[in-house]
């Protein structure tokens, strides 16, 4: 089964750029989109013609902001956030068999201390929630724009960004906690310490052409699913957003 996640940074803009033309080649069974920036009544009609049987949307109350969408050929129970007051449209949870699959647009902490606090609160409540699921014998997969690079290898200029939200010690320590709890960073598990592998590039300074990027988009799987993981990848050649799609192949 192929699962792909992509922060589109504006769904309508990606549709206008024919930004989903790659789907025929990669054929995901599940496609998680973040930062769609559209209410459900503003979803472009083209999205409903991409060949997916099921589409779920969680839009922010604020127009043109945040929002997540999942497109799937899986039969799942679809829920919005069960662990956080989600006015910003950040969470979709999909349950099937014994699996809980999350599509999440994690908060950005760069707007100041208040938003960093919001981000860390979201982080903490989400980790507590997925730990409880694993304790109940569930398999957990979560994907999306986590908005934090974990290690120095995960961004081009770690020293210059040491005091920037997205690479702060407190944010990176949360990913340490996720891994200590038994969740697997699928890309590193499959690809090891491969360098210069990024999923986001600033629109400024020709950053993408120079590959001056960050790896902030992830698929994590719980320990019990590790042996089912077959591949993990970044589709860095696919454009249309400042993020690249990331994905996994997994036996489910």
TrEMBL record:
Active site residues per record: 105, 145, 243
PROSITE patterns, alphabetized: AP_NUCLEASE_F1_1, AP_NUCLEASE_F1_4
One Pfam family named in its UniProt record: Exo_endo_phos
A GO term, aspect molecular function: phosphoric diester hydrolase activity
Residues bound to Mg(2+): 7, 35, 145, 147, 242-243
Enzyme Commission numbers on file: 3.1.11.2
Coiled coil: none
Site (Interaction with DNA substrate): 243
Gene3D superfamilies noted in UniProt: Endonuclease/exonuclease/phosphatase
Annotated site (Important for catalytic activity): 217
Marked site: Transition state stabilizer: 147
Cofactor note: Probably binds two magnesium or manganese ions per subunit.
Protein name: Exodeoxyribonuclease III (Exonuclease III)
Protein's organism: Campylobacter devanensis
Encoding gene, per UniProt annotation: xth
């Amino acid at each position: 089964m192929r699962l792909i996640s992509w922060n589109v940074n504006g769904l309508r803009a990606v549709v206008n750029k024919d930004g989903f033309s790659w789907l025929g080649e990669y054929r995901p069974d599940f496609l998680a989109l973040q930062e769609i920036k559209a209410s459900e009544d503003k979803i472009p009609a083209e999205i409903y013609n991409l060949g997916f049987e099921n589409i779920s949307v969680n839009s922010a109350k604020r127009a043109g902001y945040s929002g997540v969408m999942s497109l799937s050929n899986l039969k799942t129970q679809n829920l919005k956030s069960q662990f956080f007051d989600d006015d910003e449209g950040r969470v979709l949870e999909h349950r099937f068999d014994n699996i809980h699959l999350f599509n999440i647009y994690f908060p950005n902490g760069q707007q100041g201390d208040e938003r960093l606090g919001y981000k860390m609160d979201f982080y903490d409540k989400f980790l507590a929630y997925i730990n409880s699921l694993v304790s109940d014998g569930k398999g957990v997969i979560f994907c999306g724009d986590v908005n934090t690079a974990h290690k120095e290898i995960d961004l081009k200029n770690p020293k210059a960004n040491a005091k920037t939200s997205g690479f702060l010690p407190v944010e990176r320590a949360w990913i340490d906690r996720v891994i200590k709890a038994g969740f697997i960073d699928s890309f590193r598990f499959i690809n090891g310490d491969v360098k210069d592998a990024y999923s986001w590039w600033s629109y400024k300074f020709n950053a993408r052409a120079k590959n001056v990027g960050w790896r902030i988009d992830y698929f994590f799987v719980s320990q019990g699913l590790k042996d089912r993981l077959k591949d993990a990848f970044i589709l860095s050649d696919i454009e249309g957003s400042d993020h690249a799609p990331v994905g996994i192949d997994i036996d489910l």
